[in-house]
Amino acid sequence: MSFVRNAWYVAGWSREFGEALVPLTICAQNLVVFRASDGAITALEDRCPHRLLPLSHGKRIGDTIQCGYHGMTFGTDGKCVRVPGQSNLPASAYVDAYPVLERHGIVWIWMGEADKADPALAFDMPEFSDPDWHIHHGDQLHIRANYLNVAENLVDPAHVSFVHPTTLGNAASENVPVHVKTSGEAIVAWRWIRDAEPIGFFKKFGGFAGNVDRWHYYYLHLPSTAVIDFGSADAALALPEEERDKGVRIFALHFVTPVEEGYTIDHWMHLRNTAVGDEAASEQMDAMFRIAFAEDKAILEAIHQEEQRPQKRKPIRIAIDKGPNVYRKRIRELIEGEATDDLGEAEMPVFVQHD
Questions:
Q1: Residues facing residue 266 across a β-bridge
Q2: Rg for the chain (alpha carbons), in Å?
């Protein structure tokens, strides 16, 4: 399985979790999620240790879940609190409980070793807490493709001209060089298109009629969170890169959650520095995003289908693949690092290496 497990993955928006038992799958692990009476969200392994019936097929009793087969009951910590017909509770009668973090209306679940679940590792950005920025939670895009393909598509400005010609791109950017930086925590790809016709998105939302300067900055944070900083400004302003806030600037956030090897959910939302508090504007933007993201979905699912077929030759790589290539390498290193335990240097080594 090509999953990084020691990471926070988005399960959904806060509004999606209440008293009801919600089954979901992350990294091929089935979970059952609900909000306890104190408001905290609980995520448990969705499999009773007795006959393996998913607990989501049972029922909630207070802050416990009763299995729908023989009534074994589990608390929010995963421990069994009742076995009908007997007074003793076997030590093996438990389900795994997963660390949960809820912040900015987003619910994260840590899928790896619980003692490594540091909230500081979950993605955050200053604009979430800035009243000059509007936060809007969007939808879930269900994609029948591997999450690595989905994520690397989100660090690829070059595809926008061809996949989204009427929404997020146009022909003006086809031959504009893409810059890539891979030395930092995030992989970054970006480009500016100067003094060009505005794309369809900003014709509708930004109201631009004449030529604009527009930008795309793609940030990919491991394992699979992407931030696309894009916007436009009147070309006459000739904005330098560091003054993008003077234009219409939007952060499109994609929290890419692997469900299984061939199934991914992209939880998308946006932050913007204009039309703050205007929900009609949010709905207008959602409609345009849905069109664009459906275009991505069609491409990615077609690629995934072809990847399952026999290959007569190796796929080629071209100049624009620098960011995706580095991304794949880093993911492999993380997965390999989780596959073994490093015990450190031995105090009394019996093996001494000299080269």
A1: 141, 256
A2: 23
Q: Are the C-beta atoms of 177 and 190 separated by less than 8 Å?
A: no
Domain 125-330 carries which CATH code? 3.90.380.10
Task: State whether residue 102 is helix, strand or coil.
Answer: strand
Residues 6+ apart with CB under 8 A from 155: 187, 188, 189, 218, 219, 220, 226, 323, 324, 327
Alpha helices in the chain (DSSP H): 147-153, 160-163, 200-204, 279-307, 322-338
pLDDT tens-digit series, residues 119-143: 999 999 999 999 999 999 999 999 9
Per-residue model confidence as pLDDT tens digits over 180-209: 898 889 999 988 889 988 877 777 777 787
The ranges assigned to domains in the chain are: 8-116, 125-330
Instruction: Identify residue 333 by its one-letter amino acid code.
Output: E
308: which 2 tokens? 């399952």
Does 2.30.30.100 match the CATH number of domain 8-116?
no
